[in-house]
């Protein structure tokens, strides 16, 4: 029995590792940036929606505040009523969605209450159940693509940075997903230019 337990320990350790990985609460996003942005040195920024019609929107003021907080952490300052050194434009979009097919394992037929594995002469044995059947289910669901785009320009219009973060979501709850997209966009900001990165944000660390 001791030998059996010694062989079983690595199996249990692997199963526990898989269980922990499966329970990890992460947010995934594709992030692409293109920039000629110098290192920040306290430049003052104004943050505005790219769409002028949204500049009075309370919703977009909230998004601007989220981006402003990230920019502050990177070393920029809010211009307030003063003259900005840089102008940050942004927009948030979500599409009409598409159908996505997923597969998952299921079973059909009754499974007797006495079904169990047992140990006998160094082997595991399973009773044969003629009624138990594995099958694969195809599940259709609607997914949406939410996108946050941001650009940084000089007051004369010279473009220094453009980037986007996008993710698939099962709902059109834009206010809940924008903070996560912003979090992904600012991972190692401004990031490598001309590269799409697959970003994972640990929600347990962000407190979201």
TrEMBL record:
Gene3D superfamilies: 3.30.160.670. The keyword Acetylation does not apply. It comes from the Bacteria. Keywords: Signal. The keyword Cell inner membrane does not apply. Residues 50-191 form the DUF4136 domain. PROSITE patterns: PROKAR_LIPOPROTEIN (PS51257). Residues 1-21 form the signal peptide. This is DUF4136 domain-containing protein. It comes from Kordiimonas lipolytica. The lineage of its organism: Bacteria, Pseudomonadati, Pseudomonadota, Alphaproteobacteria, Kordiimonadales.
